[in-house]
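User: Can you help me understand a structure? I only have the sequence.
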Amino acid sequence: MTDTVLKRKAVRLDPRLAWFGDVRRLLSPMAGVTDRPFREICRRYGADMGFCEFASAAGLTYGGEATWALVDTEGEAGRVGIQIFGSDPEHMMAATRLLNERRMDVLDINFGCPAKKVVKKCGGSALLADLPLLERIVQAVVAEARVPVTAKIRTGWDEDSVNYREVGLLLQEAGMGWVTMHGRTRAQKYKGEANWDRIAALVETLDIPVVGNGDVVDGESYRRMVEHTGCHAVMIGRGAIGNPWLFGQMRAVDEGRPVPTVDFREMCLTTIDHLLGEVALRGEPQGSYVVRKHIARCFKGYPGAAVLRRRLYATTVAQEMVGILEQAAAAGDPRYDEAVETGGDHHEQN
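Assistant: Let's start by predicting it. Here is the structure, written out as tokens:
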């Protein structure tokens, strides 16, 4: 792929990561979201690489069936990464040893998750406040991994302890293939704006690739992040929920084409594909429940969206949901005529 629009900083690539030179659009590891069916849909639209849901190193080490189900990559087409978290170097090393038997292109270490259940066990972004332990974990994983190791971080624990440059240099020196940075502190969680100036500063600080993360929600914000930071690639997290076509918008920007719009029918058909994939993986009703969080965002802002959601949420039978989506697709845009469903004469904007 040749970039025709965006200029990015030249980087030093691990020889094992020569393929990463053309990777620009990544799907972030997200619990309950980035399972295999959703990764495949995001690739369809333009994601160059997808990550599994992040997995506990302790869960993997002790053979937790549910934890191992999160890293189902066997036979998966396209680039895929696995991300692990934990605070015990021995667990992280043991999990890495076990994961060497799994199909993956990189093994990522989670130093960025702000969730309480992760942080209270001194995992995720909590390690940004304990760099000696963070370094021991990195050394343990790198020593065992048969694939390149990468890491995801935040700018720091809070505004009084912003240390992303120090952490980035430590990770580069320890042999990380690239560093992904979310432009918020742990204390911010997902509030406020991501600080792209700090992503730009990390890009300038490191020789290895920096992947930007935070507040990219469409093709234009993607363009602005890359222009602002010079980052090698962008990782999409929450912005992809119910919006896999975001990757198509990003790809159009990279290729110098007009950013495409997604019509109602395509949204419905993609949702059907996602639903059937989840049900095949998880069965009913679990597969239907997983898709609900995507449906909530996918159809937001269109006439009749509330009624469409209520109809879809009223059943967990996949074929009934498929029928509702097919009916809505056939009705055209506006997506769903609430007046027909309710007997009213208005359209609700959601």
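Now, to help you interpret it: Strands lie at 25-27, 49-51, 55-56, 79-85, 106-111, 149-154, 179-182, 210-213, 233-236. Residues 335-350 have pLDDT under 50 and may be disordered. Let me know which part you'd like to focus on.
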